[in-house]
Design goal:
Layout lengths: L1 H8 L22 H4 L13 E2 L2 E9 L3 H17 L3 E8 L5 H10 L6 E4 L2 H6 L3 E2 L3 H4 L30 E5 H6 L8 H13 L5 E2 L9 H13 L7 H7 L8 H14 L11 H7 L5 E4 L3 H10 L5 E4 L8 E4 L10 E5 H6 L1 H13 L2 H10 L21 H8 L4 E4 L8 H16 L5 H17 L2
Length: 457
């Protein structure tokens, strides 16, 4: 039985926690040094030169190994090609609270030229970002970026904008075949699948909360049916702010989150890191694992064990719909590349950042990303990009994009305080899952925090 094997190998695998963009141990619990281990020790954006070239820093969140490899591969190729600029990678390691690190970076005036952006609206309104020129945006499909009120574009995507379809379950296909199991078509079938795996004496699901942001990986598909109801009305969180909805409307998905955690999740999830779920799956300590990395996680699995037969599916709603959040191209929930205003002040730093983005969205760089296992951004020259169809399980992902039950919804927020609340809500959910608080307490404290943040706007 798999549980016996899990116990025998558990000592060799340190317990870990959540998803690719892991957020934090607590809302303010990281020391300055822990929050920004790289940014505070690196030089500022102004005046850097390397071998006669303008040196710029690129700050990004690490997570799945595929994204890490893409960042390094594209930067290395650019550095070898450019006669005028050099990109110095500045990764924040797994376990770092990225939003807190960004706040610390801002407080110290230590902005890099290129930033893997979070909480975009907050920093845009504070004047921290520089416009991205047409020489960059003209390389992208028109629907994946948009100007703000001043007519300028401030953020462009790092990868293909397929919404949160990457928030899926990675599973052991051979186990499913061996035990006559099938990918669920409804939420009821999903719970029945978990019960069947548990009845075999095996752990159904590995998930992570050692980093706070990966807690979204299980939560978001469960909450998506509720969020989708507010898509045409401006999004759930805007409805809460307007008084047309409340945190109490999330009681059912919170109950489901608690039930799944109590009955089916592999022990040790509170300290499990996102990337470790790959190891837990490949070591057969669990039959399924949560992910937010899409094909990137399948690629990670293949690198760890080329013989592991992995697949993916999206947790369906009661009615069988696959409710998937659209990508925001603007607003506080938008993420992607931004150029700092500090780099713009320098001039040469800005020019170097623009040159890198022009390369990043070239066919050459997109080919590198695809070869590394990441879906390239939505560039206008997409027909020239060499797609990577070699990753085992990738067909499952593309089948989801073509699934007739796929339903896109929007849930954008229009207030900059949401990011602070979001971190709080993630932590509140983890405490509820862990039995430190009840669902009622989670809802009450989260509503209070939401109201407090909204009042500060």
């Amino acid at each position: 039985m798999r549980n016996a094997r899990a116990r025998s190998s558990a000592a060799a695998v340190p317990a870990r926690g959540l998803s690719r963009r892991s957020l934090m141990q607590s809302a303010g619990g990281l020391s300055l040094a822990a929050a920004v281990p790289f940014a505070l020790t690196a030089c500022g954006t102004a005046g850097g030169t390397t071998g006669g070239k303008t040196a710029i820093r690129f700050l990004y969140a690490t997570g799945d190994e595929t994204w890490n490899a893409v960042a390094k591969g594209v930067a290395d190729a650019f550095n070898a090609k450019s006669a005028t600029a050099t990109v110095e990678l500045e990764p924040l390691p797994a376990g770092t609270d990225y939003p807190t690190a960004m706040k610390t970076m801002d407080a110290t005036g230590n902005w890099p030229a290129l930033v893997d952006m979070r909480d975009t609206l907050t920093y845009l309104e504070a004047g921290k970002l520089a416009p991205i020129p047409e020489s960059v945006t003209s390389l992208l499909n028109d629907e994946v970026y948009a100007p703000v009120e001043d007519g300028e574009v401030y953020i462009v995507p790092t990868t293909a904008l397929n919404g949160e379809l990457g928030f899926n379950m990675v599973y052991d296909k051979d186990y499913f075949e061996e035990h006559g199991l099938a990918v669920p078509a409804t939420y009821t079938e999903f719970v029945a699948l978990l019960d069947a795996i548990k009845a075999n004496g095996d752990a159904p699901l590995a998930t992570a909360a050692g980093e706070i942001w990966p807690s979204d990986q299980l939560w978001k598909p469960l909450a998506a049916p509720v969020f989708a109801q507010y898509s045409e009305a401006g999004g759930f969180w805007n409805a809460v702010r307007a008084g047309d909805a409340s945190l109490g409307d999330l009681r059912e998905p919170l109950q489901r989150l608690k039930d799944l955690t109590d009955a089916y999740v592999l022990e040790g999830w509170q300290s499990t890191q996102d990337a470790q779920t790959t190891t837990l799956l490949v070591n057969r300590q669990a039959v399924m694992a949560t992910s937010s990395a899409g094909i990137g996680r399948l690629n990670d699995v293949n690198k760890v064990d080329p013989d592991f037969n992995a697949g993916i599916f999206y947790v369906p709603a009661d009615d069988g719909k696959l409710n998937v959040l659209k990508n925001a191209v603007n607003g506080d929930t938008a993420s992607g590349f931004a150029i700092s205003a500090q780099a713009q002040e320098d001039g040469k730093q800005y020019d170097a950042a623009v040159e890198f983005l022009e390369f990043y969205f070239s066919v050459e760089a997109c080919d590198l990303m695809e070869a590394a296992g990441m879906i390239a951004p939505n560039v206008k020259a997409a027909d020239e990009v060499e797609r990577n169809s070699s990753i085992p399980g990738a067909d499952d992902y593309f089948a989801l994009l073509a699934n007739p039950n796929l339903t896109w919804f929007a849930n954008e927020t229009t207030w900059s305080g949401f990011s602070t609340f979001h971190t709080f809500f993630r932590q509140a959910r983890i405490e509820m899952q862990d039995g430190q608080t009840t669902i009622d307490e989670c809802i009450a404290k989260s509503q209070e925090e939401f109201d407090n943040q909204a009042e500060q706007e």
